[in-house]
Write a structure and sequence with these properties.
Blueprint (H helix, E strand, L loop, with lengths): L1 H8 L6 E5 L5 H7 L1 H7 L7 H21 L6 E9 L2 E9 L5 E10 L8 H11 L10 H16 L7 E10 L4 E9 L6 E7 L6 H8 L9 H13 L3 E8 L9 E9 L3 E10 L3 E13 L4 E10 L2 E9 L8 E13 L2 E16 L2 E16 L3 E17 L10 E11 L9 E14 L3 E13 L31 E2 L2 E2 L4 E12 L4 E13 L8 E12 L2 E10 L4 E8 L4
């Protein structure tokens, strides 16, 4: 008890570190000075001499920290007082002028220096490196510049690229930095033969066609990544790993090691869900990956929801020598939307290919359908059409991309003389763009334009006409409820225009909010395209199974609020 009373009577230690520095530099000093480190060691017991030594080191550390931020002529005043109650250290920092980059010199050596593109590559690197003349010099920016230069050279043809020499000459009097960087590219690489391991059912030619790495083609890191991505997404393999093999003496024939694990030959997928546009949903798919033992993929699928019921079958061939994917299929479906009931049968053949960010598809389709509107109007539509689809995708594959764009163009049509009830030409464009704002926010813009050029809609299947409204169209209105009205029911029209502007702000990495304005309409003539407006707030959540969007939209034209829920990014 006496010991406790004596301890309570002793004054508590009051060690203090005070830093007077510009706001942009103060956190750096508070975190990294030696005295700051000592104060964070709660369980350590430093002697008076040890604290004094940390103070002396802190004065040197302060100058070194300022130099990393480009301040090479600072004025630093410090004091250290010690009493029985503890010590107090004070630092007053005037950083002085910040050093600017006066010149950046880049020189290439190795095989790249002998290539015809050497000068153009050197100029491109100089103009796009992170640190440019006139910018403030910092050690972090200089390190990032060197790292970026090496990575960009190594990504194309020169995987052995490295820094041969680098120098940063600082003039403290003029407050300038003269930077020089020498990159050694090493030899120029080209792809050699594929070394494929893990195949049991499929021939090596399947892997070669999916990878698309012909021997002698110049090495690019992205091509290796595309090879692995194509294998993983092909449906034939459960996993795939692709990397360069050991380099032979001749770098023009580097073997590529491909390790795969084949997926099971059969797969049954069952699913259920709910959306505010179409209500509850149930679906099933049967996949046979090696149909007829020729690496053909047979897909049988069915979908049941409030507005649509569908059954389909599709047979897909492995990619051919030009990496085209060929398929044939058929489908039977029934739709009931806003009083328009359609029963359709389809037979189609398709040729598709993906090259980098561009996907193309050519589709020949024969469709017959029976249509009724409000149980009054009956008509039969038939068309043998040829359609071309082009999609360019630059937005990253994230839940909520902040930059990039996705654009889709469709051109198709039919001739009355070729198994069609009417001649028509269908044109369609949908563009989605993401703009980053600040560290977390984004602005999203969407535009949709469509036109089916024909004398009327008579004889044209509904798949080649347009509607608007719903979560991915004009919020605030029921799913596909915007279009021409016939007999009190909404039908498909020959023209559509929709657009949207949305601002998203994320409060945390997972949760965010949105404000949006949508507008659009579908009609049978350009003069009847009177846009309907919907606007409101929304909630955004990065869930483990995908992005969740919950919007509350006010339909200005119908004077009512509507809830829209969607799971996933709609491109």
């Amino acid at each position: 008890m006496l010991a406790l009373l004596l301890c309570a009577a002793l004054p508590a230690r009051a060690d203090q570190l005070e830093i007077d520095a510009p706001a942009g530099l103060k956190p750096l000093l508070e975190k990294n000075l030696d005295l700051a480190w000592g104060l964070r060691q709660k369980d350590a017991h430093f002697s008076a001499e040890a604290w004094r030594e940390l103070y002396e080191k802190s004065r040197d550390t302060a100058r070194e920290l300022l130099e990393t931020e480009g301040y090479f002529s600072p004025r630093i005043e410090s004091s250290y007082t010690q009493t029985a109650q503890g010590w107090t250290a004070r630092f007053r920092v005037e950083p002085g002028p910040r050093t600017q980059v006066a010149h950046l010199d880049l020189r290439l050596t190795g095989a790249v220096a002998q290539s015809p593109q050497a000068q153009r590559l050197q100029q491109n690197l100089l103009q796009t490196l992170p640190l440019q003349p006139g910018m403030p010099f910092t050690q972090q920016a200089w390190s990032a510049t060197k790292r970026d230069a090496v990575q960009r050279l190594a990504a194309r043809r020169y995987p052995d690229a490295h820094i041969a020499a680098s120098q940063a000459l600082i003039d403290p009097q003029k407050h300038t930095a003269q930077l020089s960087l020498v990159l050694d590219s090493g030899p120029a690489y080209a792809f050699g033969a594929l070394d494929v391991r893990g195949l049991k059912r499929y021939p090596p030619a399947l892997v070669q066609r999916l990878c698309g790495l012909p021997q002698g083609e110049p090495y690019e890191q992205n091509k290796l990544l595309d090879c692995q991505r194509n294998l993983e997404h092909s449906g034939y393999f459960q996993s795939a790993a692709v990397q360069l093999g050991s380099a032979p003496e001749n770098a023009a024939a580097i073997p590529v090691q491909v390790r795969v694990e084949e997926a099971k030959p059969y797969k049954l997928t069952l699913g259920a869900g709910y959306g505010t546009d179409t209500g509850p949903r149930a679906q099933a798919q049967w996949l046979q990956r090696d149909f007829a033992r020729r690496a053909l993929q047979l897909k049988l699928a069915t979908l049941v929801e409030n507005t649509q019921q569908q059954a389909s079958a599709e047979l897909l061939w492995p990619p051919d020598a030009d990496r085209y994917l060929w398929s044939v299929g058929s489908a039977a479906k029934r739709t009931d939307i806003e009083g328009q009931v359609t029963r359709a049968l389809q037979i189609l053949g398709k040729r598709a290919r993906k090259q980098g960010a561009v996907e193309t598809a050519l589709v020949a389709q024969f469709q017959v359908e029976q249509q009724s509107v409000g149980n009054i109007l009956q008509q039969s539509n038939r068309a043998l059409s040829l359609n071309y689809i082009w999609t360019h995708h630059t937005a990253p594959a994230t839940d909520y991309p902040r930059r990039g764009w996705v654009s889709t163009v469709q051109v198709g049509g039919a001739l009355q003389a070729l198994l069609s009830d009417q001649s028509f030409l269908r044109l369609y464009w949908r563009h989605l763009q993401f703009f980053p704002i600040g560290a977390r926010d984004r602005l999203l813009g969407r535009l949709e334009l469509g036109a089916t050029l024909a004398s009327s809609t008579q004889g044209i299947p509904t798949d080649f006409l347009f509607r608007a409204g719903g979560a991915n169209s004009v919020r605030g209105y029921a799913y596909q409820s915007l279009g021409p009205v016939v007999g009190g029911s909404v039908v498909s029209g020959r023209y559509v225009v929709t657009g949207s502007v949305e601002y998203d702000h994320f409060f945390t990495p997972l949760w965010g909010a949105a404000l949006f304005v949508d507008a659009g309409q579908a009609a049978n003539s350009l003069g009847a395209l009177h846009p309907q407006v919907g606007l409101g707030p929304g909630l955004r959540y990065r869930s483990p199974i995908g992005p969740v969007n919950l919007d509350v939209a006010y339909g200005v034209g119908v004077h009512q609020w509507r809830l829209h829920f969607s799971l996933g990014v709609s491109f």
